[in-house]
Amino acid sequence: MAKRGQNEGSIYKRPDGRWCAQVNLGYINGKRKRKYFYGDTRKEVQGQLTKTLRDLQQGLTVATERLTLAAFLTRWLEDSVKPTVRPRSYEAYRHRAQKHLIPGLGRHTLDKLTALHVQGFVRGKLADGLAPRTVGSLLGTLHTALEQAVRWNLVARNVASLVDAPRVERREVRTLTPDEARAFLKAAADDRLESLYWLALTTGMRRGEILGLRWQDVDLAEAILTIRVQLQRIGGKAQLVEPKTTTSRRTITIPPVTVAALHRQRARQNMERLLAGSRWQHHDLVFASTIGTPMDAVTFARKFDLALARAELPHIRVHDLRHTAATFMLAQGIAPRIAMDALGHSNLSMTMGIYQHVTANLRRDVAKGMEDLLTGTK
Known about the structure:
The protein is mostly helical. It has helices at about 40-55, 70-80, 85-105, 115-125, 130-150, 180-185, 195-205, 205-210, 255-275, 295-310, 320-330, 335-345, 350-375; strands at about 10-15, 20-30, 30-40, 220, 225, 230-235, 235-240, 250-255.
């Protein structure tokens, strides 16, 4: 092999079997600087060397400092995450990085971080009592960050991809049966949020979509509503933000019973406005506090739990109202594609996951029906 020329870099195999490429960057602040790349194959380091030489020829700056994972994650959050994701998503990334990833792995230099380091971090978090799903989200965030490091040519490979994610037990979704739903609505008839429950169970809207629904987006005469914003808490402050996906922006036809419930809600809210007087804050929200401010999601969940208790029903999450509505839609024979549009799912597989749950119940009903028919059991 011909010897490389001056400032063309060099490639060699190390005693440990890995390949190394190095390039001379000249003198920086009076000291000679070299850039090193490491990889499992010659081709791997050759690609990095070629890109670095091209950057040098174009006058681009090549990083030489020993970048720690902590410094990289901080830079990644500001330069890559913040400009491209929604504020709430950014807060989630930032929380995982600052609360867990930086304290646990931040001291390692980026190019020296190994799969063993990350696997140990995962094992330690599980030992600390964090839920496997939570630890999986930490690993996912690190993987996303290191993918950017690979694209920025800061590391040769993403070591997080070599780490075993914790096994997550699939949570059994608990939905209301039609009888339970009727019992719940009956028990909530005098509840301040009874109209909200009707809306949730007949449309399958998300919690943020319901709490962010504005009167300007409701047409009771035409029995339709349009989802244009949703309520989210970002940095401790309730804000109306656009839905995450285009499929979430949708128009929903509501049944007459829900139209009637929303008429009752408007009358109830007009009375609350009169009682509040000057304390009323107009946000045009269909479901708000008694002075018109956005309703807190925690308060909503607490009131929902009390309503379930009054109906003597087992506990379910607020989100399970959405799953209940989806189950009712599919159990009536509504095509999954139509249900997908109504629910605002981003892909059909999400709807089909619910559909499989429904069909399992229907198969049991069919089997029981055949037994009743042949044995004369009522």
